[in-house]
Design brief:
The protein is mainly α. Helix content is 67%, strand content 3%.
Length: 148
């Protein structure tokens, strides 16, 4: 399936590309979802257990732990692609609340919460730039096509 979605990208890079996409989309999606919760959009609310708000970084940490454990036993190209997606999602869930983790207070919508946005945008920019730079470097000279 991934081969059809990402033609020309080698199995060894596919996980990285999928992680970057998943991170970017998850970060944007979580910002939208939390904004909808923040403005009291009907039908959207926090996840709670026993009256305690469960921040989404908890789900991100669990997902990153699962990716790490899977990586210890699975190394097929197909699993690496799925792990790339899960890694990007998990990392976005954690970094989106980095300011909350750093301050140990719910500063998500405060000025201090901007740290999370700055970190996430930096990750998106640096990872995207690294992917673009390494893709350009891997191009076959004279053909204009990638050998990824």
């Amino acid at each position: 399936m991934w081969l059809r979605l990402l033609p020309g990208i080698s199995p060894s890079r596919r996980g990285f590309v999928l992680a970057w996409w998943a991170f970017t989309l998850t970060f944007g999606g979580m910002r939208l979802l939390t904004w909808l919760i923040h403005v009291d959009m009907a039908g959207v609310g926090d996840v709670q257990s026993g009256g305690i708000h469960i921040h989404h970084y908890v789900w991100g940490i669990l997902l990153l732990a699962a990716v790490g454990a899977t990586g210890l036993v699975q190394r097929t190209a197909r699993i690496r692609a799925w792990m790339g997606l899960a890694y990007g999602v998990g990392l976005a869930l954690v970094l989106d609340e980095a300011a909350v983790i750093i301050s140990l207070e719910d500063v998500y919508w405060d000025t201090a919460g901007g740290i999370s946005i700055a970190l996430a945008v930096t990750v998106i920019a640096v990872a995207g730039s690294a992917l673009a730079a390494t893709a350009a470097r891997r191009r076959t000279p004279g053909t204009g096509t990638g050998s990824e």
